[in-house]
Specification:
The structure is a single chain. By secondary structure, the protein is an alpha+beta fold. It folds into 2 domains: 74 residues, Glutaredoxin, CATH 3.40.30; 121 residues, Glutathione S-transferase Yfyf (Class Pi), Chain A, domain 2 (Up-down Bundle), CATH 1.20.1050. 55% of the residues lie in helices and 8% in strands. A 4-stranded mixed β-sheet has the order 2-1-3-4, covered by helices on one side. Helix 1 crosses helix 6 and helix 5 crosses helix 7.
């Protein structure tokens, strides 16, 4: 069986988990705290980052969430997550890149640093200026998601795709860390409520990171 090395608030691991579950691929979660730089984990991935997927029986090691998702899209026919003609697939990949790079850099990464790493690893207080900037940036990103959802049923078009899974993965971490002000974003709230109600998403919402408690609305579909 596949093993997924991850930790509860890794948005890239969440994206992979959502895709695997939607496609019906069985896997086992292995808790990994990458900041500890455990020798056995660094041997798997010298970059020391999650997620990493391992299939020991076949000697397969997959590194990087986009590479992992591409692998399973190419090898598992069920429930395509990058479907359609080349132009549609290009739009899905564009959105996934924007979410994994820009949304993460502007919002999710700073929130993880200030509200998780500083608390669990560095034993430092968060920088409130950084938190305010991340929340302001999150509002701008939600504006763009609202725009997309004004014109499309799902983020990339008429079908659920990897773009929706990536967005939900990142926003769920930001929301867990109290960094999302959902007010004034009805289109995105409605879309995210649907995402939260999917069976693939419920296990993510049930998980908790030690010491850090999410807002009361975090796991509620009607929020």
């Amino acid at each position: 069986m596949w093993q997924l090395f991850q930790f509860p608030l890794c948005p890239f691991s969440r994206k992979v988990r959502l895709m695997l579950t939607e496609k019906g691929v069985p896997f086992e979660l292995v808790r990994e705290s990458p900041w500890e730089r455990r020798d056995e984990f660094v041997d798997l991935n010298p970059a020391g980052r999650t997620p990493v997927m391992v299939e020991s029986d076949r000697g397969i090691v997959l590194i990087d969430s986009r590479a992992i998702c591409d692998y399973f899209e190419e090898t598992v026919d069920a429930v395509p997550m990058i479907p359609g003609p080349a132009t549609d697939r290009a739009e899905i990949r564009r959105l996934v890149a924007w979410l994994d790079e820009q949304l993460y850099a502007d919002v999710v990464g700073p929130l993880l640093e200030e509200r998780m790493r500083k608390r669990l690893v560095k034993r430092e207080a968060p920088d409130t200026k950084v938190l305010r900037e991340a929340m302001r940036a999150c509002n701008a990103h939600l504006d763009y998601l609202d725009y997309l959802l004004d014109h499309r049923r799902w983020l990339a078009g008429p079908l659920l795709t990897l773009a929706d899974l990536a967005a939900a993965a990142h926003l769920s971490v930001a929301d867990y860390l109290g960094g999302v002000d959902w007010r004034g974003h009805k289109q995105t709230v409605d879309w995210y409520g649907v995402m939260k109600s999917r069976p693939s998403f419920r296990p993510l919402l049930a998980e908790r990171m030690e010491v850090i408690t999410p807002p009361a609305h975090y796991d509620k579909v009607d929020f």
